[in-house]
From TrEMBL:
Organism per entry: Perca flavescens
Domain of life: Eukaryota
Keyword Transmembrane attributed: yes
Record's protein name: Uncharacterized protein
Annotated TM spans: 6-24
Alphabetized UniProt keyword annotations: Membrane, Transmembrane, Transmembrane helix
């Protein structure tokens, strides 16, 4: 019996050493470099430990000083390959359909590369030189552009990069711009997205806290507006796909409340943008989002789930009497309400 116990203790010790090496020491060493390969990246377990540690020791809405002389926060991952299973889950959750990637003449969804960057985003947020608390960051704006069809990423290995551009102190707290980019196997830029995240001052009320100059002016309701109504159910598989899009494990804490019917959970901002682009493509054709294209979005009120939403889109012109369309405006609203969850524009 003593021999069996010794074997068990030895096995447990060996497993502990292995787990510490793989998930902690190895990940700690990998974060010391800014250029990694897709086969050697820090584990999510270690990144979550760093996330919690940094969230506990820092206050939201405060811009801290960089801890080292290396002020730039940037991470690059080489030799990336497209994960078909992740792409299928994304397409199914975002309203494209599970068979979307295999449909003829259809490009990979414009928002999908951000899902590929989810680990890189987490690495940036827990970096010692990231000057904000990683907890409670809210997406307020996003600009996205494709220089080539996103399908270029299916043709071979590609490179992903996430870097911090700048910080801005505003009345509501501190904003940070983070650039995500994907480069093809030929080293030519394919996709780029700039996220503006807000770290709110605790004295501010819950909400997007947009200043007057940030709000888009009200546009007259056009005659050619198209409206699509959608149901947002409680169990859409959102969190399994978008778990790092909101940069917080808050969804785990909201599970008990959701069991009692409370609408405490909000839809990720990336999902709202993705489902709008999916519906626009279905009704306007794939040509409206064919590269090169620019998409800008302003996120306002959070969307509680479950619920119903209305997606509106219309051609935007400088002069109604003449002038061709200058782009396509779109808006996401709760069903039967004038409140706006998100407003955006597609242009070339």
């Amino acid at each position: 019996m003593g021999t069996e116990q010794s074997y068990i203790v030895a096995s447990l010790s060996l497993c502990s050493v292995y787990l510490v090496y793989v998930h902690i020491y190895r990940s700690w060493k990998l974060l010391k470099t800014n250029v990694l390969s897709d086969e050697n990246v820090p584990s999510f377990a270690y990144l979550y430990i760093k996330y919690v540690t940094k969230a506990v020791t820092r206050r939201t809405g405060v811009l801290y000083t960089a801890t080292t002389k290396k002020h730039q926060v940037v991470y690059t991952v080489l030799n990336c390959r497209l994960e078909t299973s992740v792409l299928r889950r994304f397409c199914s959750a975002a309203g494209y359909g599970w068979d979307y990637p295999d449909t003829e003449y259809r490009d990979i969804p414009l928002c999908f590369p951000e899902i590929l960057c989810r680990r890189l985003l987490l690495m940036v947020l827990v970096d010692e030189n990231f000057r904000l608390s990683p907890a409670g960051l809210v997406r307020v704006r996003q600009s996205l552009k494709t220089l080539q069809p996103v399908d270029e990423l299916k043709k071979g290995q590609f490179t992903l990069q996430v870097r911090v551009l700048e910080y801005r102190q505003i009345d509501a707290g501190v904003e940070v711009d983070i650039c995500l980019s994907a480069t093809s196997r030929t080293r030519s830029p394919v996709w780029e997205s700039v996220l503006t995240l807000l770290s709110k001052n605790k004295l501010q009320k819950v909400g997007r806290c947009l200043s007057k100059n940030e709000r888009q002016p009200d546009e007259p309701v056009p005659e050619n507006v198209k409206q699509i109504e959608l149901r947002v159910p409680r169990t859409t598989g959102l969190q399994c796909v978008w778990s790092f899009s909101d940069y917080s494990p808050y969804w785990l804490l909201s599970l008990p409340a959701s069991l009692f019917g409370c609408r405490s959970h909000t839809a990720p901002s990336l999902w709202m943008l993705s489902v709008c682009l999916a519906e626009i493509e279905k009704h306007k054709g794939v040509g409206v989002i064919t590269a090169p294209i620019n998409v800008t979005a302003q996120f306002e009120e959070p969307l509680l789930v479950p619920g119903r939403v209305a997606i509106k889109f219309w051609e935007k012109t400088k002069n109604r009497s003449q002038s061709p369309a200058q782009g396509l405006s779109f808006q996401l609203q709760p069903h039967g309400s004038d409140i706006s969850h998100m407003m955006g524009l597609i242009s070339r």
